[in-house]
# Entry
Amino acid sequence: MAMNCIVTAGPTYEKLDQVRRLTNFSTGRLGTELANYLTDQGHEVTMLIGAEANYSGKRKAQHIETFTTTADLHDRLQAQAGSAVQGVFHAAAVSDFTFGKVFTRSPQGKLTAIKSAKISTSHGTLLAELTPTPKIIASLRSWFPQARLAGWKYEVDGDRDTVLVAAQRQLQECLTDVCVTNGPAYGAGFGLVTSNGKNRHVPGPAKLFESLEKMLR
# Structure
């Protein structure tokens, strides 16, 4: 049975000024290949892909939109909200922080906020506020109340046990159905942590995609 799915992939970015950005090391490959797999299985797929994603592989999804900032991705997902969507796979690498104020500091330690379309090195050393971005994953259940929801938990610090605990926390707080765990802290492969407390290890992307597609059914 064909279903209507959304896959997010690649990084968001946040502007420092008109020429500089804060982003992360995401190529968009995993999300793109997941969207391709779901398309090959006969599902109707909308892929939201970061403008900074540099994976050059084929994009097979029937509908493709490009996002920029976290706010832009938020708005594009919210625009898709409704019961017509049966599955959302939120694999995008969303920036945890955006820029707040940027300051110069005088020799006496006084901070002065600056704003410029292109901040110059003539300002010297700068101090920039990093403020948290809204957690998009926390809104998915209200936007897609009937859908199966998959989030991701990529962790660098800690070990596999701490990653699995963090995955369970995400499931409880965001009311998602499954959390995919990976990254240096988890180790090779992926973990599939479900809302009923179960955890299953899968060795690579092929098995991961197969398992996530089965979740839809």
User: Anything to note?
Assistant: The chain has two domains: 4-96+136-155+204-216, 100-130. The CA atoms of residues 8 and 48 lie 5 Å apart.
